Amino acid sequence: MFLVIVLIWQFQKAARLPRYALWALLFWLGLSGSLAAGGFFLPTDALPPNFLFLILPPFLVIAGLLLLPRGRAFIRQTDPRALTWIHSSRIIVEIYFYSLFLHGLMPKIMTFEGRNMDILIGLSAIPVAWYGYHKKILSQNLIRIWNVVGMLVLGFTVFHGIFSAPFPWQKFGFDQPNVSLVYLPFCWVPGLIVPMVIFSHIACLFRRQTPIS
Hints:
This protein is mainly alpha-helical. The protein has helices spanning 2-15, 19-37, 52-67, 69-76, 80-86, 89-102, 118-134, 140-163, 188-206.
């Protein structure tokens, strides 16, 4: 919960959210948490699974921002330096994932001992933010490449997360399925943290950046 609050505070500063957007974000935090606490996401044999109601709304918002002129204008005014620092939270998330694996709530494939290399993006976010925006040593092209790689790594992780969960389409982790993310507070990883991270990558790639002198 503490990580989520810190991330929302940092995201609000980085994205320069208007007050109504911040309240909408907090509303989603409370709604998704309440649904998870009430067991709404637990049924995994339904088609479509209730879990989709956790992950679809944030991505629809991101799609709307990219499609609408006012949304694109909003993306252009975000702070890429602060957005890059947000990715360091992926270190803590990966530590949580490893703890969940040790407690039998997540397959090994979802950890840094398996196929999840997301912790490397979290670790590299610190020098990218520092040398790319504070020291202004890294080129914008290199920062863009880092953001593309970060999105690909996250997509690879999300792919394994979805297909190791006990849904009808499960392909991995049959001995220890990915069951943690339908419970509170871990539901906020796919429902809030992952969309924030994806938006941070997209915004840094999409906005017009001033060339480094």
